[in-house]
Design goal:
Helix content: 55-70%
Strand content: 5-15%
Number of strands: 3
CATH class of the largest domain: Mainly Alpha
CATH topology of the largest domain: Triger factor/SurA peptide-binding fold
Distance between the termini: 19 Å
Shape: elongated
Length: 225
């Protein structure tokens, strides 16, 4: 990190003292400025910054809380967690672009405004949120992208969900008899159907994500050596 230049001190001791004061007093503000200028990745011609990754992660936790959700460390942008979050944000951006291009799953103004208010209310006391000081436009853009992307994923999941037949379940059962020991097929039929349905949906989603990664030229710059 590049620290701001101080005026020439009259002695080495004075310079050291002043530097220490700067480190303690302004580190949080400086980390926010550094986040603004650091590119995390690209989706076509759209650049995603580490600042946006931080904001996206905070908003995700507010709108879709999950057990074990922890905050990202802005000083560890090469960490596995930060790189993984960046990848998620890049893909989410590509999905939102694809949804907009096809004119599907529009986000109503009422829902967008309601989600924005929820984000502001839940994060108003969050230290990282207050340091980053997101603008209204930043919040709106991230929230809208997130809502549109998640709605489109749900739409694709529903489209990819094709009922598994009894015969398909039985074929799986017979091909994996050792897993089920000597118990009858009827005991596992519903479980097998649920498993095969999820497997099929996951496969189709993965193929779709791979397609979007190629179409929108997704690049995670933090993952590069």
């Amino acid at each position: 990190m590049t620290w701001p230049k101080t005026r020439r001190a009259t002695s080495v001791v004075a310079l050291g003292f002043l530097t220490s004061v700067l480190l303690v007093s302004f580190s949080s503000r400086l980390f926010a400025k550094e986040l603004i200028s650091t590119s995390a990745g690209r989706v076509g011609d759209t650049v995603i910054t580490t600042r946006e990754v931080m904001l996206n992660h905070l908003i995700e936790g507010a709108l879709y809380p999950k057990e074990g959700h922890t905050q990202l460390d802005p000083n560890q942008i090469k960490s596995r967690e930060f790189i993984h979050e960046t990848t998620s944000d890049l893909l989410e951006t590509a999905i939102a672009k694809e949804a907009a291009a096809f004119g599907v799953v529009p986000v109503s103004n009422e829902r967008l405004n309601s989600s924005e208010k929820r984000v502001r209310r839940l994060l108003r006391r969050n230290a990282q949120w207050r340091e980053l000081k997101p603008s209204s436009e930043e919040i709106k853009n991230i929230v809208e992208t997130k809502l549109r992307a998640k709605d489109f994923i749900k739409f694709k999941v529903d489209s990819a969900t094709v009922p598994i037949t009894d015969q398909e379940a039985l074929d799986y059962f017979n091909a994996n008899r050792l897993k089920f020991e000597n118990l009858p097929f009827s005991k596992f039929k519903d479980t097998i159907k649920a498993y095969l349905t999820k497997q099929r949906v996951d496969s189709r989603l993965k193929n779709w994500f791979d397609f979007l990664q190629s179409k929108y030229r997704i690049r995670n710059l933090l993952a590069q050596p």
